[in-house]
Amino acid sequence: MNATSTRTVVVEAGGTQVVGHVGLHALGAFADRIGVGETLSGAIGWNGPGTPIHDRGRVLTQTMLMLAGGGESCADIEALSSQERLFGDVCSDTTLYRTFTKTLTPDTVGQARRAMAQVREQVWRRTSVTDGDESLVLDIDATLVEIHSENKDGTGANYKSGFGFHPVFCFDDATGDALSGMLRAGNAAANDTADLLTVVDDAISQIPPDMAAGHRPGDDPDLVERAVVVRSDSAGGTHVFTKGLRGRNIGFQVVTRTQTAISAAIATANEDPDRWETAVDQDGSEAEPTDSGLAAAVCEVTDLVDMKGWPKGTRLIIRRQPKHPGAQTTLLPDLDYRFWGHYTDQAGDPVELDRQMRAHAHVEDHIQRLKDSGLERFPFTGWEANQAWLQTVMWATDLASWFQLLCLVGPLAKAKPRRLRWTFWHAPARIISTARRDIVRILDGWPTADEIVAAYRAIAALT
Fold it and tell me: Cα(44)–Cα(13) distance, rounded to whole angstroms?
């Protein structure tokens, strides 16, 4: 029996005609095809003396590749600089540091965001995911990022006895795009209405103009061409936030908080079996009963609660779920069920509205993608540089998502960052030159070789 996990080999430096990160090269080729570097270059420009050696649009695009590949600091750009035959001239970590600390001012980042919104519009035109006339669903959520240093501007203690930042984000549910993000201190309140409305407004500025029409503060409702709905956890479950959305002609689905009046309404509804309908799962099938014989159910209790203070037409939908070990806090103490509810101004059957609201859980996956792509490391001392880093992390995850939408099929089209790194981004290959062309030959037996070749064909087919 041989219990060793590797073969004995002699290791030497000096290999030639070998490259790594072939999948990241595909991602970079895709970025070039849709004009990311060129667009950012025009938006950022150059205010220094002479002509820069490294175009700042290219610097940021290569930074996105580094982040998608698992990089967490400026020094990680060296993983690309060692692959000149794939990525050309890559900037040093010092140049990258200066880009974030000197070039990417708030005004410059704002210009770059407006430019990237144009790229996003073209990407969305190429995919069927955003087609149709159904409501555009935006998800808001905040997350804690632990920072193990007190020397970074704006950090603070958080409610979980940790320390760091508490950014809040707004995502598009259909594509997973991180449309907006606000860097905040660790002690920032999750339910800060001004912050929540700011990220909503920033998100609206990032979607195509026809979808954004009528959704800015004070807009005439007649301007609306595409309905927009914002989903939020209980941080958004306030009168002020929902009224702010109504002032933007935006619908809402927000988790309700524990209140005596709501508990009383649920207790009344719980005694009326005719009120309840069996809940459905995300695929539309009815929820299966648990071992106790109980199944999840949904009802509306708007008529049992005083809705004064909420926007006109607000409804209260309640879901009861059979209890399981370790169940979270419920709106009403009960031996058999835990209760959960949300406010909404959307029309439709309560069961379907409940299904839609439960899909807000997608936001956890979106945030995890950010954390797997550089969000958990803020490498700078200055606040503005770290805000620019946050924005670049969001661009990196968006770029990878667009690539998956337009260039990948099957499991890889839905794969998470870590799987993409193991199987796609860091694929090794041999590179040879013939007829004045460089030819990359992917390692024999590499599990995603066919998918990589197909992705290059998809990139070439983009118009």
Answer: 39
CATH topology of domain 134-366: Transposase Inhibitor Protein From Tn5; Chain A, domain 1 (3.90.350)
List pLDDT tens digits, range 231-265. 999 999 999 999 999 999 999 999 998 888 888 99
Q: Work out the pLDDT band at 9, boundaries 50, 70, 90.
A: confident
For the record, the structure tokens of 354 come out as 């409940």
Nearest to 211 by CA among 222, 229, 231, 225: 225
Euclidean distance between CA atoms 301 and 421, whole angstroms: 47
Number of neighbours of residue 162 by Cβ within 10 angstroms: 15
Residue (of 137, 108, 209, 151) closest to 366 by Cα position: 137
Backbone angles phi, psi at 405, to 5 degrees: -65, -45
Beta-carbon contacts of 386 under 8 Å, excluding residues fewer than 6 positions away, are: 152, 153, 154, 165, 183, 378, 379, 380
- Tokens representing residue 336 in the block: 């058999």
String of DSSP letters for 222-281: GG-SS-EEEEE-GGG-SHHHHHHHHTTT-EEEEEPPP-HHHHHHHHHHHT-GGG-EE-B-
pTM score: 0.92
**Cα–Cα distance, 457 to 444 (Å, whole number):** 19
DSSP conformation letters of 7-53: ------S---SEE--HHHHHHHHHHHHTTHHHHHHHHH---SSS--S
3-state class (DSSP) for residue 297: strand
Where do the structural domains in the chain lie, given as residue ranges?
A: 18-109+380-438+450-461, 134-366
Q: What is the pLDDT of residue 388?
A: 97
The neighbouring-strand residues paired with 172 are: 138
**Residue for token digits 């970079």?**
28
CB environment 186-212: b (16+ within 10 A), e (fewer): bebebbbbebbbebbbbbbbbbbeebb
CA separation for the pair 399, 383 (Å, rounded): 24
pLDDT band at residue 330 under the 50/70/90 scheme? low
Q: What is the pLDDT of residues 272-281, one digit of tens each?
A: 989 999 999 9
First and final C-alpha spacing in the chain? 56
| pLDDT of res. 337 | 79
Report pLDDT digits (tens) over 132-181: 888 999 999 999 999 988 889 999 999 898 999 999 999 999 999 999 99
Answer yes or no: are the C-beta atoms of 208 and 124 closer than 8 Å: yes
Mean per-residue pLDDT of the chain: 91
